Amino acid sequence: MESYDLLVIGGGINGAGIARDAAGRGLKVLLCEKDDLAAHTSSASTKLIHGGLRYLEYYEFSLVRKALQEREGLLDAAPHIMWPLRFVMPHDAEQRPAWLIRCGLFLYDHLARRRRLPGSERIRFERHPAGSPLKSRYHQGFVYSDGWVNDARLVVLNAMDAAERGASIRTRTACVAAQRDGDGWLCTLHGEHGQQQVRARALVNAGGPWVQQLLGGVIHAPARKAIRLVKGSHIIVKKLFDHDFAYIFQNPDKRIIFAIPYEQDFTLIGTTDVEYHDDAAKVAIDRDEIAYLCAMSNRYFERQIGPADVVATYSGVRPLLDDEHDNASGVTRDYALELDSDGAPLLSVFGGKITTYRKLAEQAVDQLAPLLGNTRPSWTAGQHLPGGDLPGGDFDTFVRSLQQAKPWLPPALATRLARAYGSRVYPLLGTAANLAALGAEIQPGLYEAELRYLVDKEWATCADDVLWRRSKLRLHLPAGAEDAVERWLAAYLSSQPAASVRETQPHQG
Fold it and tell me: Is 61 helix (H, G, I), strand (E, B) or coil?
C-alpha cells in the first residue's frame, strides 16, 4: 500500500496550490481529482488577478488588501499567462457618485504597494480610445489597474510544479472513502483502472463546491463552517472594440459586470451572481442570464447585442464562505481554513478566490507541516511557475527571441505557443527544425507535438482538456474539431503504458 505525508482531494486552484507548496517543503504529496484539473470553478472565472474593487463597498478591506498584495507577485510568477490590464469605468450619474468612485480608487491604489502597475486616473472619453465604442451619453470615466490570468493554465502550472517537486498527480481519480486509522488516514481512491487504497498522515479537503459533501459523505467529519453556492455565468461575443482596455460597468441593480478583450477576436462579458442549489457538475447558463448580460452590455456600448450574437458561454459554481449575507453579490470572497487535529490532521478549505490562492496554500501548509514534523519555511513567494522564467519578465522580448531561434514558426503560432507555455515552449518543440517535424496538423495550428506534450506533461486526456481548458482553440477552430482531436488522443493514449497516463510526474524542461 502506498503511503504519503499528505493527500489533497481536489484539483482546482486551491488544491493544486497546496500540493505545490507542500511538495516544495519536502512532503510526500498525492493529489487526486475526480475529473480534470480545473474542470469546474477554477476554469470558469472572469480570469482576473484583482483586489476586487467592488468589495470595498462591503467593507472587505482586509480581503482587498490581501489580494492586492498578491497581485503583482502573481503577475511576476508567470508573465506568459498573466499580465497587467487597465480597466475603464464609465461614470454613470444615475449610479455611484463620482466622489465615491474617486475615494474607492484612492483606497485601491494605496491599500498595498504597487511596483509597476500605474495608479488610477480620471479620463474624458472624447480624448481617450476607450470612448469610441461607448454610447455618446458617457463623457467621462476612470481608469485603474488590475491583471489578467489564464485561470485553467494557472492550475495546471501549479500541478506541474508540484509534480516536478515530487508530488503524484492523479486526475480522473476520486476519493470515495477516508477514515482515520491509527495516526493516519486510510483512503480509497477510484479511477478508471479500479480502486486502490492509500495511506496518508494528513488529509486536505479542497473540494471546492463539494467540500461539505466530502466532509459528510466521504470523510464523515463535522464542519463548523459552511459554503453558499453562487453561479457565475459569462458570454462570449465577437469583439465589440479594437483596443486593449477592459471595461467595468455599474448597473442599476448595483452589480458590476466586466467586458474584456478575449482571445484576440472576442469580448468576454460577465459575470452573474445567482444562488445555486443543484448539482455543481451540471451548472449551465440560462436564458435570463444571457438576457441580463446582453442588456448590461447594451446599456453602455453603442453596438447592441442579443442572444443570437453569443458564440459561446460558460458557467461555474463559486463555493463562497457563508457569511449569511442576504445578497449573493455581497457574500464574502474571503476564505477560511478549518483544521481538525483531533487525531490524524484534516484541513478543509472554505471559499477563496484565484488571486489569493498562493497565500491560502501557504497558510494551509504552515498549519499542517509542523504536525507532520516538517519545519521547512514557506517558499512560494517570488518563485516562478513552470514556463514563467522569461528574461526580465518581458513577454514581447521573449516572443521575438523565439521567432529568431525558430524562424520557421509562423508568427501567430509562435505567439500562441509562447503565451501558453512560456519558456517550456522549447521542450515542446524539441529538436524540430521545421513545421513538418512537429508531426501532423490535426487542426489548423494544432500539431501532434503539442498534443503529445499536453498528454505527457499536462494530464490532458480528451478534447475538452485540450481545446477548452489548456487552450481556447475551440473558439477559433471549425465545427468538428473536437472529433478529430478525440480520435488522435484515443489512438495516442492507447499506445501508452497505462500507469504513465494518469500519474505523470513532469520533469524539468
Answer: helix
C-alpha cell at 83: 499580465
Upstream peptide bond of 380 is cis (omega within 30 degrees of 0): no
Helix-helix angle 411-421:395-405, to 10 degrees: 130
Domains delineated in the chain: 2-41+152-226+332-372 (3.50.50.60), 86-148+228-323 (3.30.9.10), 391-502 (1.10.8.870)
Rounded Cα gap, residues 86 and 80, in angstroms:
17
pTM for the predicted model, two decimal places:
0.95
Bridging pattern class, strands 194-205 and 346-351: parallel
Name the DSSP class of 409: S
Neighbouring CB atoms inside 10 A of 491's CB total 9
Q: How far apart are CA 361 and CA 10, in angstroms?
A: 13
pLDDT digits (tens, 9 = 90+) for 410-462: 999 999 999 999 999 999 999 999 999 999 999 999 999 999 999 999 999 99
Three cell numbers written together for 500? 504513465
Distance CA 203, CA 213 (A): 15
Give the 3-state secondary structure of 236-293.
Answer: EEECCCCCCCEEEEECCCCCEEEEEEECCCEEEEECCCEECCCCHHHCCCCHHHHHHH
Q: 3-class SS at 385? A: coil
